[in-house]
UniProtKB/TrEMBL annotation:
Cofactor: pyridoxal 5'-phosphate
GO molecular function: aromatic-L-amino-acid decarboxylase activity; pyridoxal phosphate binding
Compositional bias (Pro residues): 65-74
Record keywords: Decarboxylase, Lyase, Pyridoxal phosphate
Protein name: Amino acid decarboxylase
The keyword Transferase is annotated on this UniProt entry: no
């Protein structure tokens, strides 16, 4: 029963005064535990307003219209009901993922873009129907899985696109359920503290002091150039190798920087002698160390095309001698830091002012999972921005963390949770073992190619990318082989142009790939090559 009678006009909003459990009963008469359904609680209108006669005149004399029917029940992912409504939905998702994968039957759907699009449209139908479909979740997940390029399939090996670990995907679900937004502390109390812990730990792994979370290598590279520009009021000029990621010259354009100076990379890596000459040519009237415009040199630790690593110690020495700032794009190769066997390939990384990391590559995270590490935390003050509703000055003075200056974005999901769950579950040794596994498989694939007279190997892999092509094939043939495998849904290989020739690219990021999978991949290539 409800409590003693009272005047509802004097108490339009019951107040919960007890920490006792909530119930599904709405009782305005003094009850101390209740749940207010969202559909029945609007602004300052008390519950008694819903008992008005719809034909009663409005203040202007017009009768009220009939109120709309209540909306369909839409359970929340958390809150008073706990996450229990998710359980049957998760079963639906897992079943649909399984059925979609079986329907696909390979690393990607056969038929090419038009066929995939037509099947998806037929399966989905009207995306905004007049009335909802209770089977929509199953339909959409099945359709997406059936039409997916599955990075967990050993024959899907085109890009720096990893199969995510189960623990990371599970943590990502928790992040979606809790839905913190990392633009103010009152939206993300624990998530902001966790982000600070994990970003500093990963920054220290690179030899730097702090890091901020980004959406990936492109945002990290852009942010690195922004911090460089803001550290020099007169602006900076980018110097990068011809092998640099396309996001770097694009970031220079977006930031209004001068045209980048592009240094030759004849063997796929930035040439130190050519870099020395470029920095010398850019020197100011007082010689080396005083360039006319402050310079930021961008080196690469893991090129997109071949996974090659620039000579970081030599580049760092040249930057020091010429007074240039050093940024290292380690979006691909940064994961080598976890491996005792391969960490030395990143010697010199600690000399950088900024480092791009990307854990949705050699970190097995769902997209996105990027970071930018910085040597001097003071550089991040360039991101400071005041928005009174998020980081009022008096709140900051009172000790509430200011999160606005941790990103160029405002609303941010807690992507650090999946990273933290992975780091803590596997540890450095566990992640290092995954890195060692994919690198070993890449070397094994290179051995198979080298031993096959029908195939040509570009070079031994530095990380886990292997370039090869059918022996004696033209570039047009190489491109056609790749498209045939893609359209038939049998294998996904990338393409790279080096030494003015087109190569097939196998990027091995699946630690579950076996030797027989490598042999199958090569047989598919040879079987698709015209005689």
């Amino acid at each position: 029963m409800c409590g003693p009678s009272h005047d509802p006009a004097r108490t339009p909003h019951p107040v919960r005064t007890s920490p006792g459990p909530r119930t599904n009963t709405f009782c305005p008469h003094g009850s101390t535990h209740f749940r207010v359904p969202l559909a029945l609680h609007s602004g300052r209108v008390g519950p008694q307003a819903y008992k008005l006669d719809p034909q009663a005149p409005r203040p202007g004399g017009q009768p009220m219209s009939t109120p709309p029917p209540p909306p369909p029940r839409a359970p929340l992912a958390s809150g008073a009901e706990d996450p229990d409504p998710l359980r049957p939905l998760l079963d639906t998702v897992l079943d649909a993922l399984r059925s979609g994968r079986h329907a696909r039957g390979g690393p990607l759907p056969a038929g090419g873009p038009d066929t995939v699009t037509a099947k998806l449209r037929a399966a989905v139908g009207d995306v905004l129907p007049d009335h909802g479909d209770p089977d929509a979740l199953r339909t959409l997940v099945h359709a997406l899985a059936e039409g997916a390029a599955d990075p967990a399939d050993p024959l899907c090996a085109a890009h720096l696109h990893c199969p995510p670990l189960a623990v990371a995907a599970a943590a990502d679900l928790a992040a979606s359920v809790l839905n913190p937004s990392l633009d103010s502390w009152d939206q993300a109390p624990a998530a902001s503290a966790l982000e600070a812990l994990v970003t500093r730990e990963l920054a220290h792994a690179t030899g730097l002091a702090d890091a901020v979370v980004t959406t990936g290598g492109t945002e990290s590279n852009q942010l690195a150039l922004l911090l460089a520009r803001e550290s020099h009021p007169g602006g900076v000029r980018l110097v990068c190798g011809a092998n640099a990621h396309h996001s770097l010259p694009r970031a220079a354009w977006l930031l209004g920087l001068p045209e980048p100076v592009v240094v030759p990379a004849p063997a796929g890596t930035l040439d130190p002698a050519a870099l020395h000459q470029a920095l010398t040519d850019l020197a100011g009237p007082h010689g080396p160390g005083s360039p006319r415009t402050p310079l930021v040199v961008a080196a690469t630790a893991g090129t997109t095309d071949a996974g090659l690593i620039d000579p970081l110690p030599e580049i760092a020495g040249l930057c020091a001698a010429h007074g240039a700032r050093l940024h290292v794009d380690a979006a691909h190769g940064g994961g080598l830091l976890f491996s005792d066997r391969h960490r030395d390939k990143l010697t010199g990384l600690e000399a950088a002012h900024t480092v791009t990391l990307d854990l949705h590559k050699l970190g097995w995270q769902p997209v996105p999972a990027g970071l930018l590490a910085v040597r001097h935390p003071r550089d991040l003050t360039a991101l400071h921005h005041r928005a009174d509703y998020l980081n009022a000055g008096d709140d900051t003075e009172a000790g509430i963390p200011d999160l606005v200056g941790r990103s160029l974005r405002t609303t941010r999901r807690p992507d650090i949770l999946k990273v933290a769950a992975t780091l803590k579950t596997l540890g450095r040794s566990g992640l290092g073992a995954l890195v060692d596994q994919v690198c070993a498989r890449a070397r094994e694939l290179a051995d198979l190619i080298h031993a096959d007279p029908g195939l040509e190997l570009y070079d031994r892999p530095t990380i886990s990318t292997v370039l090869f092509r059918p022996a004696g094939a033209t570039d047009d043939t190489v491109a056609a082989v790749r498209r045939t495998l893609l359209t038939d849904g049998r294998a996904v290989l990338g393409r790279a142009r080096l030494d003015d020739r087109l190569w097939l690219k196998a990027t091995l990021l699946n630690p579950h790939t076996q030797s027989e999978d490598l042999a199958t991949l090569l047989k598919l290539v040879e079987g698709s090559t015209p005689a």
